[in-house]
């Protein structure tokens, strides 16, 4: 279902993603973080849907459908390194900082800070080209509101 889209993301020079195109891979990255500790909790699913509603202006039903599509996309997507590099090439820096914040929101949604999720977020932030300072500030902003 998503094979052509994944292939287009992984081209040497991917075209910038439109807001509609960006929804699936960005939400799939949130799903990947949530699944990284082998405990994909309902609270994480709900948080992913809330982020989708806010970030993309979706209804509750549309956000649930996007999460379900993103779950399938995530299971078909390549390794995190190629996946996040493709997003990096197609999404502006300021928006990538917002992605890192959203990753932390999902990781902390279950009330636990897991070292597997931490490691994957650090990797993803680096691969997204978000510098350590901006990444740490993103985590602090999310921790302050959690």
From TrEMBL:
This is TerB family tellurite resistance protein. Coiled coil: none annotated. Residues 25-140 form the Co-chaperone DjlA N-terminal domain. CDD domains: terB_like_2. It comes from Roseovarius bejariae.
